[in-house]
Design brief:
This protein is an all-alpha fold and 497 residues long. It is built from 21 helices and no strands. The chain is globular.
Length: 497
């Protein structure tokens, strides 16, 4: 069997595996909402590409897009954390087969290169190149520009794969993209304007002269080959480590969190939540990523000129408070699916667990609250605004997210990082996520259009406070409905372990 036949065989097997998964039908709802979101972004990107194309054609400078490309690639890099796994295909079933393991990894990496997601940036590139071509550029220049732009996206995908693989092994590898992108962005923020203008003129001259030369194509091809080879080696090494469960064990002090003993059984479940966040790679990584993302956007809003519109400030303030909930609570009880049977032993065990989760996720909102102090001191956020979205998170948003305890029935692996997947398990997860992200902001915008900003935030505070105070009542209602579906949910948890 040659590599081409192996590639199509593995691709076919993966598609069959996905269709046979118990949650395949439910995943279709999540994909539907994902397609709607992608369509909206695609329309916006077409507008951006058209605008840049008109500028380039009018000024007779086809290299205009390349000045914005570094920033587009930064956006592409971080967007891949939400959509792209490492590797995309499942590797486990093929490690014991007689086929070459490196050939299998190469097929997985090739599938990632040929993934349709890499073509998404064509929504900007195609309108831009078409308008530039209509403006007088030759056909060969237009085609070469299109190929070069796509090659840059593919190289960026390999760079993402390298960084993501290393970060999955140690959180300290975040320093690699931080140093790389910091060296690009910080000079623009710290250097005087006249020096920035000189740097811009230097790159403008060299981009116009060398961007469409064969040397540029060869440079990016060489960079692609190097990154592909590194990823090929790292993926095999780390996948073997994960599948064989190789872990570094060392003696260390284990905190007992004795201060929580005074809260009885709720205190014990609080200890479980804290230790799960600290020890389980999947949960710990999502938590640390959330801290980095919220801190990054807080600094960008406070000290930059981006996100200055009313909608953007409201959205990112809400995002800071609901991030941890939408990432983890949307799959509430899925990690517990690994040991759900033991939680059924005593009456109201699960109710106590749900309340402990609520208190824990309310407590960690202290972190985004501290980060939001930076935009407050910079004059970008108001105290009333931050308080409104804090109570919105602890009130109606958390109330909606905890409803998922009734419908979630897919066990979530705790430590599978490279070979695991992270899809929506049912339609309600996608619906609740969309509502949590957008409805509070839309409500505030409507109230601001009718009344003042203060009235809008006060209404949100009252609603959030009402849901927060009545938590014992709606939490017990969730528990009662969950118990009515307990056998159906137990069957789902057992099937997907």
């Amino acid at each position: 069997m040659n590599k081409l036949q192996l590639f199509f065989l593995l691709r076919k097997n993966t598609k069959l595996s996905e269709k046979r998964h118990p949650m395949f039908e439910a995943n279709q709802y999540g994909k539907l909402f994902g397609y709607i979101g992608v369509a909206i972004v695609a329309v916006e990107f077409i507008g951006i590409g058209t605008l840049l194309g008109w500028i380039a054609a009018k000024e007779d400078t086809p290299e205009v897009l390349f000045f914005a490309l570094p920033f587009l690639m930064i956006v592409d890099f971080f967007m891949r954390f939400m959509m792209q796994q490492t590797p995309l295909m499942l590797v486990k079933p093929y490690l014991l087969t007689p086929i070459s393991k490196y050939s299998a990894i190469e097929c997985f990496l090739t599938s990632q290169i040929l993934d349709l997601g890499n073509l998404f940036w064509m929504t900007i590139f195609l309108p831009y190149v078409f308008i530039v071509w209509c403006g007088g550029a030759t056909t060969w220049v237009a085609l070469g520009m299109l190929v070069l732009l796509h090659l840059m996206v593919v190289v960026n995908s390999q760079w993402y794969l390298l960084v993501r693989t290393l970060i999955n092994q140690s959180i300290w590898w975040w320093a690699l993209p931080a140093v790389f992108y910091g060296s690009l962005i910080l000079p623009l923020l710290l250097l005087p304007d006249h020096i920035i203008d000189k740097i811009g003129d230097f790159f403008e001259d060299h981009i116009a002269e060398y961007m469409f030369s064969w040397w540029t194509f060869l440079l990016f091809l060489l960079l692609f080959v190097i990154l592909f080879a590194i990823n090929r080696s790292l993926q095999m090494r780390f996948i073997y480590n994960e599948i064989s469960k190789k872990e570094k064990t060392k003696l260390k002090h284990v905190s007992e969190f004795q201060a929580l003993n005074r809260f009885g059984q709720i205190g014990e479940y609080l200890k479980l939540e804290i230790k799960s966040t600290m020890r389980n790679k999947a949960i710990r990584t999502r938590f640390i990523q959330g801290v980095c993302i919220i801190l990054f956007f807080s600094l960008m809003i406070a000290f930059g000129s981006v996100y200055n519109s009313t909608f953007e400030r409201n959205f990112w303030c809400l995002y800071a408070f609901i991030f941890f909930g939408t990432v983890n609570l949307i799959k509430v009880m899925c990690p517990e699916g690994n040991f759900i049977d033991m939680l059924m032993v005593h009456e109201e065990n699960i109710l106590t667990l749900l309340r402990a989760k609520y208190y824990f996720y309310c407590a960690i909102l202290i972190l985004p609250l501290l980060f939001c102090l930076i935009p407050i001191f910079a004059g970008k956020f108001s105290i009333l605004m931050v308080l409104a979205y804090l109570l919105t998170a602890t009130g109606p948003v958390y109330c909606m997210l905890f409803q998922m305890a009734v419908y979630n029935k897919t066990t979530l692996p705790l430590n599978d990082k490279i070979t695991g997947k992270n899809q929506m398990e049912n339609k309600w997860q996608a619906i609740v996520s969309m509502i949590g992200f957008f409805v509070p902001v839309i409500l505030v915008m409507l109230l601001q259009a009718i009344f003042s900003d203060e009235i809008a935030y006060l209404v949100l505070i009252v609603i959030g406070l009402g849901f927060t105070v009545t938590e014992p009542y709606w939490m017990r209602n969730i528990y009662r409905r969950m118990m009515q579906r307990r056998y159906q949910n137990l069957e789902g948890f057992h099937t997907t372990r």
